[in-house]
């Protein structure tokens, strides 16, 4: 059928080329996780395995038809059926339409670039494609076509904020590849605009831009691997494009190189952020799936990178699959097929268990996302293994104490982020704690990157984490939204684990000439002891230990040194050798949390 496509293009008959391309993509094999010719078989499997998927898919897709979008931490934002692709709908600000390298996307006057970019990732097209695949509802298909046709003239090549970040082009390219596979069969059913021709041409231009501006020097972290992933996946999936072979080779080489540069020997991602840990795990899962389908020998490398990261992710997640918000959290996802929150890592772990056929990665039932990524492999996942035991991630500097009943403590005694620490927080020797699956001591989150400089620094500061502040001094001093003037590295000198308890002891010298040393003793089924020492000259110092409680707990004073904590189930007690002061919501700028990017709660 490819000769028919060429003949139609040579005579500028784009509608005929569009129909021929639709026939081509619905019949040819593809290295993509799920291709168009497989959807007719996959959709009934999903509906049988997940009876509620039909209703959920309709609800999500119809929300988009009605112009309502979930973007980062914002729910049901009124954006419109045909969005203004350059506008931040939360703050009502529009990014200037200028040459891509001149767009001041970090300037709050241009709006929150994270919100604008999140909309322009076009990941909501996956929701439309899911609805179309499961229900054959052509309203969702027509919405996709209309949005593609509105986006193209609004974003000509190299113009505007949507060309300014190569990672955003990469995420958008992956969404377009999903859309091509999900909607290709509809091109044969009725006359319309030749959207497949337009999509391929615009996709090729965006991939060229990524290839020419890979983040090898600026943000060579998950930006670089995400961009390489798009080149590799598109290059492997679309041999019809002339540059595909080279793109696949470039993407493959970068992903192989970064698998050792960005992934620690213990499986932790170098950013030391729970959010970016999940991102990187998803990157290598997708690369591994494509490599295996393409017959690429790099599949084993990608699978190993995915496996070690997934094991790490499984261990830092609590019994409900919720990851701790350690370090920065921008609220995005690679594969938001069914609308679960970015904190819920069960979809990633389900896909990893299915792709790698490893029951130790599984957490509860296999979810729908595993079917979309792995096809029929998701039907034969090994049984779930017992949850991980207490673990020391010595290369990454996180120490995890956990029990079968759902007690889960994470202690930070490691390096301060990656490179310039752009996604790190000032949280040396901080800890988080869940009791019987209920979050108790929390990391407050991120809130914002660029829209409010004071809030950005506040949510990263030492006083907002479960650690110690000495003489009012922060451990590390920020210098701009993604830099630090004086980062602090901690280290753990003792780690002991046994069947009935764990002990870890860490230290750092941020308060030189003094040194803060903290020991954490977990006695399973009994409680936790935190012992802080300040070692150094015998001079008067102001010592404050902060404890950030999850807002779901009710606090009752038991005197100057103890409080009772209740939230259903058995009550808990927090006691201290020093007097306790409780900062209620609204009484202090520290008494806030950010469960999602862009959202601040008292």
Task: Summarize the structure in words.
Helices cover 37% and strands 15% of the residues. The protein has 602 residues and is α+β, with helices and mostly antiparallel strands. Helix 6 (124-135) packs antiparallel against helix 7.
SSE arrangement:
Elements lengths: L1 H9 L3 H12 L10 H14 L3 H13 L2 E4 L2 E5 L8 E2 L4 E2 L18 H8 L3 H12 L2 H17 L11 H18 L11 H18 L9 H16 L6 H18 L12 H21 L4 H18 L29 H11 L11 H7 L16 E3 L4 E5 L5 E5 L18 E5 L2 E4 L11 H8 L7 E3 L6 E2 L5 E3 L4 E8 L2 E8 L6 E9 L3 E9 L7 E3 L8 E4 L4 E5 L5 E4 L27
Antiparallel strand pairs: 1-2, 3-4, 5-6, 6-7, 7-8, 8-9, 10-17, 11-12, 13-14, 14-15, 15-16, 18-19, 19-20
Count all strands and give the number. Answer: 20
Span of the ends, CA to CA: 60 Å
Secondary-structure class: alpha+beta
Q: Give the radius of gyration.
A: 25 Å
- Beta fraction: 15-25%
Summarize model confidence as the mean pLDDT.
93
Task: Please give the share of residues in helix.
Answer: 25-40%
Briefly summarize what is shown:
The protein is α+β, with helices and mostly antiparallel strands and 602 residues long. A five-stranded antiparallel β-sheet has the order 5-6-7-8-9, covered by helices on one side.
């Amino acid at each position: 059928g490819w000769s028919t496509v060429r003949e139609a293009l040579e005579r500028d008959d784009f509608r005929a080329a569009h129909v021929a391309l639709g026939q081509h993509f619905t019949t040819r094999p593809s290295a993509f996780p799920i291709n168009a010719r497989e959807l007719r078989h996959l959709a009934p499997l999903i509906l049988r395995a997940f009876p509620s998927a039909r209703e959920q898919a309709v609800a999500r897709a119809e929300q988009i038809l009605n112009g309502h979008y979930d973007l980062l931490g914002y729910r049901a934002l009124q954006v419109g059926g045909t969005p203004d692709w350059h506008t931040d709908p939360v703050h009502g600000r529009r990014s200037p339409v200028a040459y891509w390298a001149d767009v001041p996307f970090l300037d709050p006057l241009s709006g929150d670039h994270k919100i604008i970019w999140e909309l322009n990732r076009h990941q909501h097209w996956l929701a439309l494609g899911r609805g179309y695949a499961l229900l054959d509802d052509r309203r969702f298909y027509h919405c996709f076509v209309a949005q593609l046709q509105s986006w193209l003239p609004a974003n000509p090549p190299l113009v505007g904020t949507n060309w300014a970040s190569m990672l955003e082009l990469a995420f958008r390219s992956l969404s377009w590849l999903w859309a091509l596979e999900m909607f290709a069969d509809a091109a044969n059913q009725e006359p319309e605009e030749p959207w497949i021709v337009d999509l391929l041409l615009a996709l090729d231009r965006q991939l060229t831009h990524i290839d020419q501006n890979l983040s090898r020097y600026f943000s060579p972290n998950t930006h670089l691997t995400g961009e390489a992933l798009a080149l590799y996946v598109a290059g492997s999936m679309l041999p019809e494009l002339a540059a595909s072979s080279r793109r696949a080779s470039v993407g493959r080489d970068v992903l192989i190189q970064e698998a050792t540069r960005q992934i620690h020997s213990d499986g932790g991602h170098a950013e030391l952020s729970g959010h970016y840990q999940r991102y990187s795990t998803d990157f290598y899962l997708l690369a591994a799936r494509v490599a295996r389908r393409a017959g690429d020998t790099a599949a084993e490398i990608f699978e190993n990178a995915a496996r070690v990261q997934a094991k790490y992710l499984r261990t830092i997640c609590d019994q409900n699959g919720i990851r701790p918000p350690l370090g920065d959290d921008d609220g995005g996802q690679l594969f938001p097929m069914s609308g679960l929150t970015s904190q819920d890592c069960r979809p990633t772990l389900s896909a990893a268990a299915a792709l790698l056929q490893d029951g130790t990665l599984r957490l509860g039932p296999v979810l729908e996302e595993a079917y979309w990524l792995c096809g029929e492999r998701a039907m034969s996942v090994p049984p779930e293994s017992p949850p991980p035991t207490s673990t020391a991630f010595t290369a990454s500097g996180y120490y995890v104490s956990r029990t079968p009943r759902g007690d889960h403590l994470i202690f930070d005694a490691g390096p301060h982020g990656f490179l310039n620490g752009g996604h790190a927080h000032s949280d040396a020797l901080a800890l988080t704690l869940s009791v019987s699956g209920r979050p108790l001591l929390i990391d407050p989150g991120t809130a914002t990157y660029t829209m409010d400089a004071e809030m950005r620094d506040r949510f990263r500061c030492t006083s907002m984490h479960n650690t110690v502040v000495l003489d009012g001094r922060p451990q590390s001093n920020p210098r701009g939204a993604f830099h630090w003037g004086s980062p602090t590295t901690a280290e753990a000198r003792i780690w002991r684990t046994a069947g009935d308890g764990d002990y870890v002891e860490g230290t750092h010298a941020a308060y030189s000439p003094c040194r803060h040393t903290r020991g954490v003793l977990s006695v399973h089924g009994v409680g936790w002891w935190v012992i802080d020492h300040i070692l150094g000259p015998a001079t008067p110092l102001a010592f404050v230990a902060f404890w950030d409680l999850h807002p779901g707990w009710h606090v009752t004073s038991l005197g100057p040194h103890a409080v009772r904590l209740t939230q259903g189930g058995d009550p808990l007690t927090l006691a201290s050798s020093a007097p306790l002061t409780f900062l209620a919501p609204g009484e202090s700028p520290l008494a806030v949390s950010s469960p999602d990017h862009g959202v601040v709660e008292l």
